[in-house]
Design brief:
CATH architecture of the domain at 2-269: Roll
CATH class of the domain at 2-269: Alpha Beta
Strand content: 15-25%
Shape: globular
Helix content: 25-40%
Number of helices: 28
Radius of gyration: 27 Å
């Protein structure tokens, strides 16, 4: 029935789509006239289908994509899409082809010509296969090219991801979607903005085959569709969504309609859900129209706004989500309030603007696990494992062509090393060239272009922070501004530049726009920008004129250096004179204990400044690799007090329990100019000691690395506590466990007890040893011992003794002792394992 309903919807929607698209295209071009028309050049020789496809792209693409890529780029992609549709012969309805094959953009990546390149390589591999088998085959190809490694939040282009053979989940899924679309298969990136039960997020892929959407882990091929390491955590998720390019009229629940995209809710594909109605009223109970309602998941010690909706004339909106708790934040015109909604328990939640407790305690409970797994035969698994190993070897052979010398910068640049090598040979000032490269992030080293390197190198003055403002797309903007007549540029004064930007740039301030950052050249030529692109343009123009400007990395405020006091930063406002913000200090009071000696930002607490819009805006301290968290802590930053702009702040603190639930404290604190504000840092504590949760035979045997005969866990660990981790090297959940152990190395070494890392086979152990040797996971604790779980006997024992609901999803991590008692068990995907272990160890 579901498949019939979907197909019926597709047929009905296709009937009126072309008229709507043509209307939206005309209205967009009319709204901004020559500003956008100058970038659109209708191509000659296009077929009717190609003309319609090009018009669809221009009707909805973000402004940055209009101004930063020529029409010829989109014509090439349109022709490639139409050609693939004809040659591959998949029976794809027009609606799905238009929204899930034709669009070039997947997420916030740089656009490139990957569609043309990928089609040439993939067509021979999938021609003649069923759509379902073709999806599996494309994912095997993706695994040949790319493997997982966490990194910062910027998304590399598909070709850059292939070039470096690495990607975080957002990049792997962007790459996989691009590959599937290249051969004409409808595909979309699915995002859980944040998990509810652990601190992380994840992205994967859905692909459409013969009337049905299926999911897969990008670059992580399985023998069948609808299977990935994330089946279990997905069943505990609260929200999942995808951005569908354009005005989409499909069967899914619509979360938000934007001029560029339609955001749809996909949680029903993965988890049990319930609906809650929300009503926003004012102080006298009158419905509030147009209130923004943010649905927030507790994750990384903040309440992250995963989905935003707006109330109708009746003050109402509605959401379906997993069977757990969300914080719901309502705001309008500076007034705000919040409340907890428990999906599956609550049916109506009423929020009254202007009523908010100054301090509140909440218990946030994630959904229970209800995993659904498709059947995989032993023969299918064995074949897939053989293919997986061969694909690893193909990728490793490619990686062997990377730079192998002593230069650490060239080593870090991976597939981009020849670009850096050529730049170093070209530069006439080796010290300046080296300084520039050291100012780049690891990801920038891997994909920066020769043009951007030379543009930053040739800039006047010291290298400073390098070419980047935040995580925008780099462009050689200095050379562009230098090419303009001086009479067209504003004077070299930060305040004058701000006035010029205010008077000459039209800001598209629709909060629902897809905020893809436009290049400074694109903003200059179009005179159009969303607020983010406007801010990036301001900093770029200032720097090109020799003015030291930035976006503050913590607050995100736009600033330039005070001419009379270069060490001071003046805040830029496009509606008021620049000023140095008044400051006070915030000191957090906390007593260290054996559970949490030093609370970590993003793990135990976060701080947000309340904005004029009535919403909290997170202070984004450096967190290192975004997938892993880490960075600022209480002892080094807030124990003695930290300088902050005066105003109201929201302090959120919590300590996640092993169940995934979190006791959370919310406090509003006032930071006053010239004063130090004291606020308690409150972390909820589980009551009592550490319970015994199961049994694990310490006499069980494993094969130590390098040994010929097995030995018992007891003989390897000795009397007392020890950790046993059954791993699956090469998979993302195991990657996280190893990095978490590395992050907690000092505490685990101080504990001094053995940590046994066991692999399912000799081949997987060899892989793990090689990856540890090359430093892929950082420095693991010195107490780590490696080995093999012979024939999966330990895994079977854990599954049986701990009464696990699934057949022992890896990694399996146990904290036990020589008396066969288990105090902690983690199954499958989890984040923050090291800190959770050390917290329990402190209570033993």
């Amino acid at each position: 029935m579901k498949r019939f309903a979907l197909l019926a919807c597709l047929v009905l929607a296709a009937g009126c789509a072309s008229n709507v698209i043509h209307r939206d295209f005309r209205e967009r071009m009319a709204a901004h006239g020559a500003a956008l028309q100058q970038f659109y050049t209708p191509a000659e020789g296009l077929s009717a289908d190609e003309k319609a496809a090009l018009e669809f792209l221009y009707a909805y693409m973000p402004t940055a994509d209009v101004s930063d890529y020529p029409t010829a780029f989109y014509v090439d992609n349109v022709r490639a899409s139409v050609r693939a549709r004809k040659e591959m012969g998949w029976a794809v309805p027009d609606l799905l082809w238009r929204h899930f094959v034709l669009p070039v953009r997947v997420n916030n990546e740089n656009l490139d010509s990957s569609r043309v390149v990928f089609y040439r390589e993939l067509k021979p591999r999938v021609q003649g296969l069923s759509m379902a088998d073709a999806i599996l085959e494309v994912n095997h190809w993706c695994h040949e090219k790319v493997t997982y490694q966490p990194s910062d939040a910027r998304t590399t282009s598909p070709l850059a991801t292939v070039k470096n053979a690495l990607g975080r989940c957002g990049e792997e899924s962007t790459f996989c979607v691009a590959a599937l679309r290249a051969v004409g298969i409808p595909a979309r990136q699915v995002y859980t903005p944040r998990w509810a039960h652990t601190d992380d997020n994840h992205a994967w892929v859905e692909a459409w085959a013969d009337g049905q959407w299926h999911f897969l882990g990008a670059c992580e091929p399985e023998p069948v569709l609808d299977l990935g390491w994330f089946n279990a955590p997905a069943s505990r998720a609260m929200l999942m969504h995808t951005k569908v390019f354009g005005r989409y009229e499909g069967p899914e629940e619509v979360v938000l309609r934007s001029p560029n995209y339609t955001e749809v809710n996909l949680i029903d594909h993965y988890a049990r859900t319930a609906r809650v109605d929300f009503r926003v009223v004012d102080a006298v109970g009158k419905p509030v129209e147009g209130a923004r309602v943010d649905f927030c998941i507790y994750n990384y010690a903040e309440f992250y706004p995963a989905v935003s909706k707006y109330t109708g004339r009746d003050g109402r909106t509605v959401l379906s989500a997993g069977l757990g708790d969300l914080l719901v934040w309502a705001s309008k015109d500076g007034r705000y309030t919040y409340g907890k909604a428990s999906f599956g328990k609550d049916s109506l939640c009423t929020l009254t603007l202007g009523t908010c407790p100054r301090r509140d305690s909440l218990l946030i409970v994630p959904p229970p696990e209800a995993v659904r797994l498709p059947e995989v035969s032993p023969a299918q698994r064995a074949l897939n494992d053989r293919r997986f190993a061969r694909e690893d070897s193909l990728r490793h052979a490619y990686e062997a062509t990377f730079y192998q010398g002593e230069n650490q910068l060239l080593l870090a640049s991976r597939g981009n090393w020849r670009t850096l090598q050529a730049f170093l040979a070209w530069a006439d000032d080796p010290a300046r060239a080296d300084s520039l490269l050291r100012a780049l992030s690891g990801k920038d080293l891997r994909d920066i272009s020769p043009e951007n390197l030379r543009d930053a190198y040739c800039a006047a003055g010291p290298i400073g922070p390098g070419p980047r403002v935040e995580d925008e797309f780099l462009s050689p903007y200095r050379a562009f501004f230098a090419s303009l007549p001086a009479t067209e540029l504003p004077a070299a004064d930060g305040a004058v530049v701000a006035d010029w930007v205010r008077d000459h740039i039209t800001v598209l301030d629709d909060p629902t726009l897809w905020r893809i950052p436009a290049s400074p050249e694109g903003v200059w030529r179009s005179r159009l920008a969303d607020p983010r692109s406007r801010d990036l343009f301001y900093v770029a123009l200032c720097r090109a004129l020799g003015i030291d400007a930035r976006k503050d990395p913590v607050t995100g405020k736009l600033q330039y250096s005070c001419p009379s006091e270069p060490s001071a930063w003046l805040d830029v406002s496009f509606s008021a004179p620049a000023r140095k913000a008044p400051e006070g200090r915030l000191q957090l009071l906390y007593t260290p204990d054996e559970v949490v000696a030093n609370p970590q930002y993003y793990s135990h607490f976060t701080l947000s400044r309340m904005g004029e819009d009535g919403r909290p805006h997170l202070l984004t301290f450096d967190e290192g690799e975004v997938d892993m968290g880490g960075g600022v802590d209480w002892a080094h930053t807030f124990r003695e007090g930290f300088a902050l702009e005066s105003g109201t702040y929201l302090l959120v603190s919590g300590n996640r329990l092993s169940s995934g639930a979190v006791p959370v404290c919310l406090q509003f604190v006032e930071v006053k100019e010239g004063e130090t504000t004291l606020a308690p840092l409150v972390l909820g504590r589980p009551s009592g000691g550490v319970p015994i949760i199961g049994a694990f035979d310490a006499e069980s045997r494993f094969l130590p690395a390098g040994a010929d005969t097995p030995c018992s866990l007891l003989s390897a660990a000795g009397r007392g506590y020890f950790v046993t981790a059954l791993l699956d090297p090469g998979k993302e959940p195991t990657n996280h466990v190893l990095r978490d152990l590395s992050a907690a190395r000092a505490s685990l070494e101080a504990w001094g007890r053995p940590i046994l890392l066991l692999c399912p086979s000799a081949g997987s152990l060899s892989r793990l040893q090689a990856e540890i040797a090359e430093g892929r996971y950082g420095a693991l604790p010195a107490t780590v011992r490696l080995g093999i779980d012979p024939e999966g006997s330990l895994r079977r024992q854990v599954v049986g003794n701990m009464q696990l609901t699934a057949p022992g999803r890896l990694p399996l991590v146990l904290l036990s002792d020589s008396f066969n008692r288990v105090f902690f068990c983690s199954e499958g995907y989890t984040i923050g394992l090291g800190s959770r272990l050390t917290g329990i160890i402190g209570r033993l």
